[in-house]
Design a protein that fits this description.
The protein is an alpha+beta fold. It has two domains: 1-29; 41-325, (Glycosyl)asparaginase (Glutamine Phosphoribosylpyrophosphate, subunit 1, domain 1). Helix content is 36%, strand content 21%. The protein has helices spanning 11-34, 50-61, 67-80, 124-134, 142-151, 162-175, 242-247, 250-259, 264-281; strands at 42-46, 101-106, 112-118, 139-141, 189-194, 200-206, 227-230, 234-240, 291-297, 302-306, 312-317, 320-325. The strands form two sheets. An eight-stranded mixed beta sheet has the order 4-3-2-6-5-1-11-12, with helices on both faces. The structure holds aspartic acid (ASP).
Length: 332
């Protein structure tokens, strides 16, 4: 996978990356936190594919568009790209060879919408938005989500691309159909934005852990875990092992920490520290786990932190669009 970093790094790679990661991310976080002016509009998203996604979001934001429209437009870029193999069309399947997608969206009024284990629909984020805007509910799953999507005019398509099918068949040979945590490729696009009017929204979408058990749902479609927005305070989104993010109600925690006065950077650090603590409580190996958070507050200050090296995120404001390596906990 060349377009994104693999979560699971060798220690050699991790050590080599150490110095650059620390210096770049710290410099960036400090620069933002020392500024008192509000930076808006601004959009942040996870991973390399965040760059292109940010460009699409920026088209909305630069013309005074709403953050909600920006985040939906932004994450639809990797969702619709068959070469992005961890989100939407082209995403890796579950262990039964089925591509099941998770997504959620949240706006400045605390409107929320979510779909989980949705098959055959290229843009789960737009189905999540339709759940938010057109139903009295906040979450639809599996067949119910598909039926709803079809009733809204979404088109049923095959999302399993040849490459993903090939990988799945290879995986089946050695895996013996056992879901093995932490060796599979995954990644999520989480995007959070502050618009010119000073309002926040967020979106999060993924095909989840490759070769997961059928029916497995991660953090990404769960409001409070993979995404949270409080228009008075800030927004956060997550990537990585969803089970660990859910365990600490990750993004809600990050936003609550910002409410208590922490900077976005410090809030992400504290949330990752909680993940780390619970990993050790459960006597699991930290080196097998990755979780990353990105956060943005009402002033347009932002930060990110993750368990181990390799996580990056894209930031677009009036000065341009750039990728930043996140600082991380596990320094060997
Ligand atoms: N958080 C996603 C999940 O657990 C995967 C990822 O972001 O890597 O489904």
């Amino acid at each position: 996978m060349t377009s994104r970093r693999n979560f699971i790094k060798t220690s050699a790679l991790a050590s080599a990356a150490l110095l650059t990661n620390v210096s770049e991310s710290k410099a960036s976080a400090n620069k933002k936190e020392s500024s008192s002016a509000i930076t808006k509009p601004i959009v942040l998203s996870t991973w390399n594919f965040g760059l292109k996604a940010n460009d699409a979001a920026w088209e909305v934001l630069k013309t005074n568009g709403r953050a909600l429209d920006a985040v939906e437009a932004g994450v639809k870029i990797p969702e619709g790209d068959p070469t992005e193999r961890s989100v939407g069309y082209g995403g890796r399947p579950d262990r039964d060879g089925r591509v099941t997608l998770d997504a959620c969206i949240m706006d400045e009024f605390a409107n929320i919408g979510s779909v989980a284990c949705l098959e055959f629909i290229k843009h789960p984020i737009s189905v999540a938005r339709a759940v938010m805007e057109k139903t009295p509910h906040v979450m639809l799953v599996a067949d119910g989500a598909l039926q709803f999507a079809l009733s809204q005019g979404f088109v049923k398509e095959n999302l399993l691309v040849e490459e993903s099918e090939k990988e799945w068949k290879e995986w089946l040979k050695t895996s013996n159909y056992k879901p093995i945590a932490n060796i599979e490729n995954h990644d999520t696009i989480g995007m959070i934005a502050l618009d010119a009017a000073g309002n926040l929204s967020g979106a999060c979408t993924t095909s989840g852990m490759a070769f997961k058990m059928h029916g497995r749902v991660g953090d990404s479609p769960i409001i409070g875990a993979g995404l949270y927005v409080d228009n008075e305070i800030g927004a956060a989104t997550a990537t990585g092992h969803g089970e660990e993010v859910i365990r600490i109600a990750g993004c809600h925690l990050v936003v609550e920490l910002m409410r208590q006065g922490k900077s976005p950077q410090d809030a992400c650090v504290e949330a990752v520290n909680r993940v780390v603590k619970l990993i050790s409580l459960r006597k699991k190996e930290l080196k097998d786990i990755q979780v990353g958070f990105i956060a943005l507050n009402k002033n347009g200050e932002y930060g990110a932190y993750c368990v181990q090296s390799g996580f990056n995120y894209a930031v677009h404001d009036a000065t341009g669009n750039r990728l930043i390596d996140s600082d991380f906990h596990l320094k060997m």
